Amino acid sequence: MNGKDMRGKSAIVGMGMAGVGEAPGFSAMELLGQAALKAVKDAGLKLQDIDGVFAATSSHAFPTLSVIEYLGLKPRFFEGTNVGGSSFEMHLLQATLALEAGLCDAALVCYGSNQRTAGGRLVSMSEPQWHETPYKPRHPITAYALAASRHMAEYGTKREDLADVALAARAWANLNPEAFARGPLTKDEVMSARMISDPLSKSDCCLVTDGAAACVLVRADRAKHLPGKPVYFMGASGAAHHRSIVAMPNLTTTAAADSGPRAFEAAGVTQKDIDVVMVYDAFTINTILFLEDLGFCPKGEGGRFVQDGRIAPGGELAVNTNGGGLSCVHPGMYGLFLIAEAVAQIRGQAGDRQIENCNIALCHGNGGTLSSQCTAILGSETVL
After folding, report:
1. Within 13 A of 78's CA, how many CA atoms are on the CB side?
2. Cis peptide before 199, with omega less than 30 degrees from 0?
3. 218: which strand partners?
4. Which residues of 152-167 are buried (b: 16+ CB within 10 A; e: fewer)?
5. Handedness of CA 105, 240, 242, 293 (dihedral sign)
6. Cis-peptide, bond into residue 140, ω within 30° of zero
7. pLDDT digits (tens, 9 = 90+) for 23-80
8. pLDDT at residue 364 is higher than 70
9. At 150, phi and psi to the nearest 5?
10. CA 48, CA 42: separation in Å to the nearest integer?
């Protein structure tokens, strides 16, 4: 069995979100539970129908066990791979494999966090710091600042280019009533924002929000008999080259350069076929790096590629149409929200930000400090 064998074998039939933005008074698990119940209902199933559980959280040592207990499930198969924010794109692949093998019949992929109301700080203490401790880094921000600085030095990328990423995200968020950060934003405001870790300012950093998301997958033959429009799994691949940023082989090239081509091959599509690109924009430099590494522009051209509204509403390439982690939602791990927006777009449920004739969406997750990368491609029935 290879990646191509999984094309169209499963479909997302239910999607749910809860607590996006601020949800005071709710624990991470309570928010996860709300999203899970919405996803199961959206799928036209009952909670007892779920016999596969895939979960990763930043709040639980044993996330799948905690989810199973909280929801009262008795799954036949469960998986708790946690490679950071890209875990959920990997879970789509794992769930598809489990469904195809007959290990489960209805798979729940879920995540929840109350990061904002529980603490509200964009600081990771999970990053190995023994190498960098004398330099007093502020991880994860400092790690991404290193990548941004290197990209500027090698390719002439400018802070103005990073600003174009933030402005595009806000423009999309202004079309999304669920986005946490909405309202006018100018390039002057972005450029004059408080510096956090040079060259990344406050406007280059993702939000710190609450939020939960969940989706339900079944085998493709069953999906046709459920009430919602199925969104089919077309292909996915993961890659990782390091854990700590100081061990990253090349600060300007991520493992997406490996995961992306494999995912495209498995899905049988190319960059020109993609209608919506959802990349994990924890920081503005991420969008530039991933557009390069996924082949939407040549290496080193990402900064110039995003100029002049090219990835904003009305631009050449629809990128992060929900507003992304920069302006929509970012509750610690963002990967499942990439999937939620892709599903909304393919189903035609994205409202004012809807992309016309959207049939194929790419979701690219990132975990750690540019550490784990996972690319997943989803599509409508018309492209199978």
Report:
1. 18
2. yes
3. 11
4. beebebebebbbbbbb
5. negative
6. yes
7. 999 999 999 999 999 999 999 999 999 999 999 988 888 999 999 999 999 999 999 9
8. yes
9. -65, -40
10. 14
* 372: amino acid identity, one letter: S
Beta bridge partners of residue 363, listed in sequence order: 278, 376
How far is it, in rounded angstroms, from Cα 128 to Cα 324? 27
Distance CA 351, CA 341 (A): 11
pLDDT for residue 125: 47
| Whether pTM exceeds 0.70 | yes
- Exposed / middle / buried, residue 57 (Cβ in 10 Å: 0-12, 13-18, 19+): buried
112 near 20, Cβ under 8 Å? Answer: no
What is the distance between the alpha carbons of residues 54 and 63, in angstroms, rounded to a whole number?
A: 9
Class level of CATH domain 3-119+207-383: alpha beta
Instruction: Please say whether the beta carbons of 101 and 77 come within 8 A.
Output: no
- Predicted pLDDT at 130: 57
* Type of residue at 97: L
Distance CA 366, CA 240 (A): 10
Give the up-direction half-sphere exposure of residue 9: CA atoms within 13 A in the CB hemisphere.
Answer: 23
Helix, strand, coil % over all residues of the chain, rounded to 5: 40, 20, 40
Contacts of 220 (CB under 8 A, 6+ apart): 8, 9, 10, 11, 230, 232
CB 211 within 8 A of CB 331: yes
* Phi, psi for residue 188 in degrees, rounded to 5: -60, -40
For residue 126, the cross-strand partners are none
